[in-house]
Amino acid sequence: MSKLPVLAFALVVPVFCSQVLAVAAAYDPLRLPAAFAPAATNLTVRDPDRGRDLPVRVYLPAATNAAPVVLFSHGLGGSRENSPYLGSHWSGRGYAVVFVQHPGSDESVWKGQAGRGERLKAMRAAASAKNFALRVKDVPGVLDQLTRWNEAKGHPLCGRLDLSKVGMCGHSFGALTTQAVSGQRFPLGVVNDADGRIKAAVAFSPSAPKRGSAERAFGGVSVPWLLMTGTKDTSFVNDTDVESRLKVFPALPPGHKYELVLEGAEHSVFGDRPLPGDQEARNPNHHRAILALSTAFWDAYLRGDAAARGWLDGAGARGVLEPNDRWQRK
Questions:
Q1: For the chain, how many structural domains are there in total?
Q2: 3-state secondary structure string, 272-283?
Q3: Residue 169 bridge partners (DSSP)
Q4: Do residues 205 and 245 touch, judged by C-beta distance below 8 A?
Q5: What are the angstrom distances between the C-alpha of 305 and each of 30, 94, 143, 298?
Q6: pLDDT, mean of residues 168-195
Q7: Is the pLDDT of residue 13 over 70?
Q8: How much is the mean pLDDT over the chain?
Q9: End-to-end Cα spacing for the chain
Q10: Type and span of the H or E element at 6
C-alpha cells in the first residue's frame, strides 16, 4: 500500500486547520464600516385586535438589501429609546434592529410620579402577570406588522428585512419576554407562546421562575441562547437576585448555549445610564464585551458565519473580557 495518500492527508490537515484558525483570528465583531452613520426611524405598530399601539424604533444598516432582524424588548419602565449603543452597533454590522416599546410597563409608568417612593410603587404594580402576557403577545404582533411593511411598496422598510433570520433580545422584564417567546415553559394558565420565527435569543439579566423547577422551565429550549448578567445584577423593583439569574444556564439543554457573567456589573450595565441604588462605578469594558459577544452570537446563529462561531467558541471571546469575567458554553 502506498504511503503517499497518508502523507498527503497528513500535510493537508494542518494546512486546513491553520486556515480555519486564521479566519477566526481575523474575525472582529467590534469592527464597523468607517463611513457608517447610524440612523433611527420611529414607527408605530397598530394592533387593532388588542387595541394596542406599540411604538418602535428601527435602526437600518447602510446596505439596502434584506437584512437579518433583531428585536429588542426593554426592561420595566423603559422605552424604544433605550440602549441606542446596541442599535447603532448591530445595525452597523448589517442588522435591522427593532426596539419595541410595551405600553403598560414602559416609561409612562414612572413619569409624572412625585418622589422615589411613588415611582417605585408604580413600577412594582406594573411588573404584573397582565403586563407580562401583553408583552409576550406584542412580539408576534410586531413580527406580523414587519412582514406587512416589508411587502408594502413605498414603505421605508419595504424589502429591507430578512424575516427568515430573526433574533430576539431583551433586558430584565424584556429578558423574561425574550425567554417566553424563544422556548421557556410556564405552568398551565400562564403564557406559553414560543414563536418559531425566532432563530436565536440573547437575554440580559435573565431570571429563573420563583416557583417550580428551572429544569422544567428551560429544559426544552432548542434555539441558541446567550445569557448575560453580572455579579451584582440585582433588581430594586422585584428583589430578583444574582442566584436566580445564575440558575438559568445550568437548566438549559446542551447545544449552542452561552453565559457571560461580568465581574462587578450591576443591573444597569446593559443600559446607557445608572439606575437608582447603583453602588459601583461603570466599567467601560463591559459595553465592549456586551457588543462583541452579542454581535458574534448574531453573526454565528443568524448569518451562519463560521468565523464568528470559531471566535465565539475559541479564544476570541476571552480576548475581550477581563480576568474575573466568567464565560462558558455548552
A1: 1
A2: CCCCCCCCCCCC
A3: 72, 202
A4: yes
A5: 15, 13, 24, 9
A6: 90
A7: no
A8: 91
A9: 42
A10: helix 4-26
Measured between alpha carbons, how far is 187 from 211 in angstroms, rounded to an integer? 9
Distance of alpha carbon 119 from alpha carbon 100, whole angstroms: 22
pLDDT band at 189 (very low <50, low <70, confident <90, very high): low
Q: Please tell me which residue, 189 or 246, carries the higher pLDDT value.
A: 246
Closest CA to 197 of 161, 233, 172: 161
Cα–Cα distance, 157 to 268 (Å, whole number): 32
Model confidence at 18: pLDDT above 70:
no
Sign of the CA dihedral running 267, 273, 278, 284: positive
Mean pLDDT over 204-218 rounds to 95
pLDDT of residue 238: 79
**239 has a pLDDT exceeding 90:** no
3-class SS string, 237-281: CCCCCHHHHHCHHHHCCCCCEEEEEEEEEEHHHHCCCCCCCCCCC
Beta strands in the chain (DSSP E): 40-47, 52-59, 67-73, 96-100, 161-171, 198-204, 225-232, 257-266, 326-329
Question: By the 8 A CB rule, do 147 and 159 touch?
Answer: no
Higher pLDDT, 48 or 135: 135
Average pLDDT rounded to a whole number, residues 53-57: 98
Check which CATH number belongs to the domain holding 313 and give it: 3.40.50.1820
User: Side chain identity at 109, as an amino acid letter?
Assistant: V
Range of the domain at 259: 4-329
Sheet with 161-171, side-by-side order of all strands: 40-47, 52-59, 96-100, 67-73, 161-171, 198-204, 225-232, 257-266, 326-329
Cβ(59)–Cβ(88) below 8 Å: yes
Name the packing angle between helices 306-313 and 4-26 (round to 10°): 80
